[in-house]
Amino acid sequence: MSLLAKISPHADERSSHLAGIGLMLLAVFMFSFGDAAGKFIVATYSVGQLLWLRACAALLVLAPMIWRQRREFVRLERPRLQLVRVVLSTFEVAAFFLATVYLPLADVVTYYLACPIFVTALSALVLREHVGWRRWSAILIGFAGVLIALRPSAQSFSWPALIALCGSLSFALLMLITRSLRRTPDIVMATSQFVGTFMLGAALSPLGWVTPTAGSLVLFAVAGVISVCALLCVNRSLKLAPASVVVPYQYSMIVWAVMFGIIVFGDVPSPATILGAAIIIGAGLYIFLRERRLGREEAAVNPPV
What we know:
mainly alpha, 0% strand
């Protein structure tokens, strides 16, 4: 954390923006590496064990920051909404890793890339925010990309695919709630998310428990530490440069998902997945740029923490 703090937002604008972009690219790589490590882990261990041991490592890393900012945890704005946010966050992380047990990593990430599209659609339907015809057109095109990636058939609409899609929808709802809890400090939001996965993992771990080897414990710890480091890099990136500058680089996640899928798991993405991902990214970028013109910059998508 102290190392990131040395990267000052008070440098000249160009250097600050370049540093922000670099940190965002690094964060996306770390998130993708952590996702690949999680998929590797759940091939042997249960999703519950992954959630629990990964959260243990993350909370240990966060412990010094939690202690220094402990006063931030005393008074929470809208505690019931905070609880709903933790429940949604915990569900979408569990859904992500459960889906990777049965689906290629690139497929699951493709569904999660649709999150900005779902957020915009839900903003209109749930929050009654005005969404013009241009963004509705982008939403429909983005949904078409999701359908192309799903390759609609009796086989493709399997429960793992539906779990991944439900996880993406949950993530979109999570983003909507986060939008209304902007005054909550970052450390509180991050900690509450890891506490949620810790509790669910602790409840599920006894079911099908497999005693981890020393090497596996290291991998669990690496997955947790990387997720925290990636989250800190994202936060620092958004302080160094405007969201409109750094957020589009989050879409590089699909590149890493494809590469890790091929190298580690031998999963070659189908042409339908690649085409669907390209359409989803195009629609998401258009929606983001449109939001920027309307003065409502939002983070596009952060992988599960």
